Every structure is written in C-alpha cells, then in structure tokens.
Amino acid sequence: MKKIEAIIRRSRFEDVKEALLAAGIEWFSYYDVRGVGKTRQGRVYRGVVYDTSSIERILVSIVVREKNVEKTVQAVLRAARTGEIGDGRIFITPVEDSIRIRTGERGDIALYNAEQEE
Questions:
Q1: 110 φ/ψ sector (left φ>0, alpha ψ -120 to 50, else beta)
Q2: Which of 12, 15, 28, 44 could lock onto 62 through a cystine, CB 3.0 to 4.6 A?
Q3: CATH code of residue 43
Q4: Structural domain tally of the chain?
Q5: What are phi and psi of 116, to 5 degrees?
Q6: Structural domain that includes position 13
Q7: Could you give the maximum distance between any two Cα atoms of the chain, in Å?
Q8: Tens-binned pLDDT, residue by residue, of the chain (118 aa)
Q9: Superkingdom, according to UniProt (predicted)?
Q10: HEC sequence for the chain
Q11: CB within 8 A of 101, min separation 6: which ones?
C-alpha cells in the first residue's frame, strides 16, 4: 500500500476530484493548507498590497493498493497541471498497514469492498 499526497492549486481541485473518480479512486481526504513557495512578491488590488508568499492550496491524501499507484498519480498529474509555476507536488510514501474500523479487516482488503474486486 502507498499513501499519495498531492498539494494542488485550489482552482484545480474539482478537476482532480473528477479525474480520481474516473480512475476508480472513490475514497480520499482533502484539506485546505497554506504554504510558502519560491515566488516572493506583493500584489496590488484596489490600492492595497497583498503578500503572496503564503499560498493557499489543497492537500489531497489517498491510500491505494500498489496496483493503483500509477493510475492515481497520472490522474492527478493530468488534472492538476497548468504548466505554470505553482502547480504543486506529489509525494508517495509506503503504508505499513490499514485497518477498517467497522470490521477489523487489515491490509489491502481494508481499502476496498471485496465484492467489488477490480
């Protein structure tokens, strides 16, 4: 199992969500996050200067079986990419175990319904 975390633009979240659902990834969490990027500049809006070094993003967190890692990453890449600086990052880390609280099932089976095997 792997945990895929993608930090994406807020404006691309709906596209990423739809791409994940189309790829068969039906369960994930997301969070509003703030970060600091390379670009440090102030923007002027109606005469007020705003510091844009603190960037609002969405963190999408997904745990998938090994066989679903690449299709999940590709779905996020296709949907989140604008080609401009600030598109975000994807991180992939190993997951040691997962447990479905309702049934106590452990491992891969806790990530999906066995009767809906792909």
A1: alpha
A2: 28
A3: 3.30.70.120
A4: 1
A5: -110, 30
A6: 2-116
A7: 59
A8: 999 999 999 999 999 999 999 999 989 999 999 887 666 556 666 777 666 667 789 999 999 999 999 999 999 999 999 998 889 999 999 999 999 999 999 998 998 876 555 4
A9: Bacteria
A10: CEEEEEEEEHHHHHHHHHHHHHCCCCCCEEEEEEEECCCCCEEEECCEEEECCEEEEEEEEEEECHHHHHHHHHHHHHHHCCCCCCCEEEEEEECCCCECCCCCCEHHHHHCCHHHCC
A11: none
Model confidence over 28-44: pLDDT tens digits?
999 999 887 666 556 66
d(CA 5, CA 30): 9
* 65-77 pLDDT tens trace: 999 999 999 999 9
